[in-house]
Amino acid sequence: QVQLVESGGGLVQPGGSLRLSCTASGDVFAIDSMGWSRHTPGKESEWIGAITSLGSTYVTDSVKGRFTISRGRSKDTIYLQINNLKPEDTAVYSCAALTPPSPHYNYWGQGTQVTVSS
C-alpha cells in the first residue's frame, strides 16, 4: 500500500508561481513512477505528467514550458512547479503513483486546491 499526500496549493494571482509537493509513504520501494493530474468541476481530468524511478520526466504539451516535474533526494517526494499561472489553471491537483504490475496509476492522493484569481 502507498499513501500520497499533496501540499502547496492556495490562492495565487495570475502570473504568479506555485510549487506543489507530493510525499509518498508506505511501500515506496514498489513505486515505478509518480505523476500529477488536475481536475476542474465540470471538466474531464487532465493528466499533467510524470517522473519515473529513473528520473525521466515528461509533461503534456498543453502545459509544457510552464509546468515542471521534479523530485527530492529521497525519491519519495515529487514536485510540480507551476509558473505564469493563469485562471484556467484553477483546479484540484492530485498526485498519483504506479506500482507494477499495475499498468495504470493505482494510488492517488486527495489533491490540493489551486485557485488563480486576482
Any overview of this molecule?
The chain is mainly beta and 118 residues long. It has no helices and eleven strands. Strands 2, 4, 5, 6, 9, 10 and 11 form a seven-stranded mixed sheet that branches. It has a four-stranded antiparallel sheet with strand order 1-3-8-7, with no helix packed on it. The radius of gyration is 14 Å and the shape is globular. The N and C termini lie far apart (40 Å).
Please tag this protein with its features:
0% helix; mainly beta; single chain; 118 residues; four-stranded antiparallel sheet
List the helices and strands and how they pair.
Layout: E1 2-7, E2 10-12, E3 18-26, E4 33-39, E5 46-52, E6 57-59, E7 67-71, E8 77-82, E9 91-98, E10 107-108, E11 112-116
In short:
With 118 residues, this protein is mainly β. The chain has strands at residues 2-7, 10-12, 18-26, 33-39, 46-52, 57-59, 67-71, 77-82, 91-98, 107-108, 112-116.
